[in-house]
Amino acid sequence: MNLAADPQRRRCYRLLLTWLWVTLLVLGIEAIAGWATRSLLLFAEALHTFIDAFSTVLSLVAVASAQRPLGREVWGHGRAEVAGTLAAVSLLGFTGLSLVFTALSQLFSAVTSSADAFRVALDRPVVYLMVVLLALSLAIAAYAYYRIQDFGSLALMLHTQHVLGDVWLSGVTLVGLIAIWQQQTWVDPVLAVGLTVFSISSLWQVLGDQLPTLLRPMAIAPEAIAQIVTQIEGVTRCVRIRSRGLVGRQVWVELHLIIHPEFAGVAHIVGERVEAALRLQYGPLRAQIWVEDAPPNQAAYLQYPQTEWTEPESTPDNWLEGG
Ligand SMILES: [Zn+2]
Questions:
Q1: Which residues cross the membrane (predicted)?
Q2: 111 and 60: one domain?
Q3: CA angle 175, 180, 183 (to 5 degrees)
Q4: Which of 43, 66, 139, 309 could in theory staple to 34 by disulfide, Cβ–Cβ 3.0 to 4.6 A?
């Protein structure tokens, strides 16, 4: 781990580490609350939080194992990551299946016998506690989203996108908890099954998005990307190109565009066209495109404020002056 040399990466690492602790705290409280109230929904939410924690760990590994800030990163793909991923996936699979079976058997006995099958008992403090926990998770995600330009980290971006993309799941959970508190106990197993299914698909997405970033340092030659990108109308130059993943499966591309002043107002359209052109060529692809205009914005020049797109000596192969 060579974080000392790069304050930006170090701050990113620190943010992710804080995020991990907050997520683990939320996970612990959810599990205890689920145990105390016998709520399957709270257990399902804890399962989902566990996936978020797993996603945070993957991002941390990606940030920590990058040997140089902008250079050819050496990504760890050792036994530890493989074993950890397998352990997490099997734990989640086992817990998820147990949850679904318990919920289904509760629903089944509720239908077949008149006795009260749902043993969940929620009171007001639990609902309040969950509101606070979900607000805390949302706050840290919103902060990361707000600062994402400063950090310029793919791993952080993927994780933030994942968490923000799942916000609606937390909203549904909260509505469900309020319903259970209002004695609608049947909601508990029904939503628990739904949330578990979504959590598993969410895990699938985390693996699909984040594992490629741990695998291949460079998926496509920067020259080839610059060749395509500079053909798009309005693009003057294309620099700082990085790509990872597996062409045909999932590729992640990060690049900085210098666009013609006339196109400054429609920069987002140029960006969309760039992404479309790359996707046409390389298949499934996620692009993070930074647009630079004439007065260089701070985010892009944060690392090397004095050098104007000249190559830092340690990273000769990833910086490219296109067009
Ligand atoms: Zn999630």
A1: 12-36, 85-106, 126-146, 167-184, 190-208
A2: yes
A3: 135
A4: 43
Ligand 1 centroid distance, CA of 50 (Å): 8
pLDDT band for position 141 (cuts 50, 70, 90): very high
Residues 244 and 200 reside in one and the same domain: no
- Mean pLDDT, to the nearest integer, of 293-316? 42
User: What spacing in Å lies between the alpha carbon of 135 and ligand 1's midpoint?
Assistant: 14
Q: How far is the CA of 86 from the centre of ligand 1 (A)?
A: 18
Q: With a threshold of 0.90, does the pTM exceed it?
A: no
Query: In this predicted model, what pLDDT tens digit does every residue of 39-90 receive, in sequence order?
Result: 889 999 999 999 999 889 888 887 776 543 333 344 445 566 677 788 888 8
- Same domain? For 293 and 146 the reply is no
Closest CA to 240 of 289, 276, 282: 289
| Spatial distance between the Cα atoms of 25 and 131, rounded to a whole number of angstroms | 14
Residue 174 and residue 32 share a domain: yes
Q: How far is the centre of ligand 1, averaged over its atoms, from the C-alpha of 165 (Å)?
A: 7
Domain ranges, residue 133: 7-215
Residues at Cβ < 5 Å from ligand 1 ion: 52, 166, 202
